[in-house]
């Protein structure tokens, strides 16, 4: 039995195309895996506070030196990390905002990116050799974008700070099995966008 965590990052609700992608994913997955459990983490419509000075002061206390008092700054972070670790499949639904990710998703990632919790330095000291602490995890990134050509070796690849960033940062945490499915041409609408939707919806149904 898998435990699936669906993370929605759009600031739109009913008009969000990335939410429609995660909904379609869930419906399709449940048909094929009826015993799997689903949890939902909202980072678009519900604010995830950004990290601050109290967070930093708490996060960098070594595990053996932690007390309840000096960990107050990462109380929410502890909850989010616990939830994240308890799941083995992640589904991120995110639009592209200004060629990157929504601020809520960035704040969520900052809360997860904790030394000695989700990653560490191999030597125990800063050495540019990062070791991810999350193992045997699978991630699906379901993105929606206004334009097209952001994929590998495509004309706008150099402008893609959305899916490339997500693959990189979660890779640092140890999640290496990542599938990216992107719905493009949202800005143009019409038949061009409808063709993109049909193609991507079929791709999700094949998962």
- Give the amount of beta strand, in percent: 15-25%
Unreliable parts: none
Rounded to an integer in angstroms, the radius of gyration calculated over CA atoms is: 18 Å
Class derived from helix and strand content: alpha/beta
Please report the total strand number as a whole number: 7
How confident is the prediction overall: mean pLDDT?
A: 93
H/E element order: EHEHHEHEEEHEH
**Global geometry:** globular
Strand order, largest beta sheet: 2-1-3-6-7
Largest sheet: 5 strands, parallel
- Number of helical runs? 6
> What is the straight-line distance between the termini?
17 Å
Draw up the topology in text.
Layout: E1 3-8, H1 17-32, E2 37-42, H2 53-59, H3 75-85, E3 89-95, H4 103-112, E4 119-121, E5 130-132, E6 138-144, H5 163-172, E7 177-183, H6 190-205
Parallel strand pairs: 1-2, 1-3, 3-6, 6-7
Antiparallel strand pairs: 4-5
């Amino acid at each position: 039995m898998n435990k699936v965590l669906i993370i929605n990052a759009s600031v739109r609700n009913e008009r969000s195309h990335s939410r429609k992608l995660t909904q379609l994913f869930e419906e399709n997955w449940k048909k094929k895996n009826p015993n799997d459990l689903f949890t939902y983490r909202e980072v678009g419509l519900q604010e995830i506070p950004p990290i601050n000075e109290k967070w930093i002061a708490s996060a960098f206390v070594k595990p053996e030196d932690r007390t309840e008092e000096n960990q107050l700054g990462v109380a929410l972070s502890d909850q989010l990390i616990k939830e994240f670790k308890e799941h083995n499949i992640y589904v991120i639904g995110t639009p592209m905002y200004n060629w990157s990710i929504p601020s809520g998703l960035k704040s969520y990632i900052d809360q997860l990116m904790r030394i000695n919790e989700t990653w560490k330095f191999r030597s125990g000291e800063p050495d540019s050799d990062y070791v991810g602490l999350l193992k045997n995890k699978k991630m699906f990134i379901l993105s929606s974008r206004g334009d097209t050509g952001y994929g590998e070796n495509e004309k706008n690849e150099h402008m893609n700070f959305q899916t490339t960033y997500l693959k990189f940062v979660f890779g640092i945490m140890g999640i290496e099995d990542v599938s990216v499915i992107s719905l493009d041409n949202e800005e143009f609408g019409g038949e061009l966008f409808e063709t993109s939707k049909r193609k991507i919806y079929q791709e999700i149904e094949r998962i």
